[in-house]
Amino acid sequence: MKEETYSTYEAKARFSEILRKVHMKRRIVVTKRGIPVARIIPYEEKPESCARRIRRLEEEGAIEPSILDPDSIITIGAKPGALHRFLSERD
To answer: What pLDDT score was predicted for residue 68?
Structure first.
């Protein structure tokens, strides 16, 4: 998702416009002297579950429905990546 950038001066002058854009699910980065200092993102009540996200993407037509029940999907633990394995082999 592309983020729009505003300086602190622009953000102050266009705050209502920024809020309208965020309401439309856009993300805004605020910079001070060219350095990012804040990100304004749409508010969500709680993180979306994997099953709910799959249903939403199906409804939006972004993905095709599966023959599997989304509620049957389980999240597995994180596996150490290549960097972790490389560093552990160096010791």
So the answer is: 73
* Domain-embedded: residue 76: no
For 16-48, the pLDDT digits (tens) are 999 999 999 899 999 999 999 999 998 877 877
Say which CATH number the domain at 39 has: 3.40.1620.10
Q: In which element (H, E) is residue 6 found?
A: strand 3-7
In this structure, are residues 65 and 55 in contact, taking their beta carbons and an 8 Å threshold?
A: no
| pTM of the full structure | 0.48
- CB atoms near residue 6 (< 10 Å): 20
Residue 33 lies in a domain: yes
- Closest Cα partner for 25 from 7, 2, 8, 9? 2
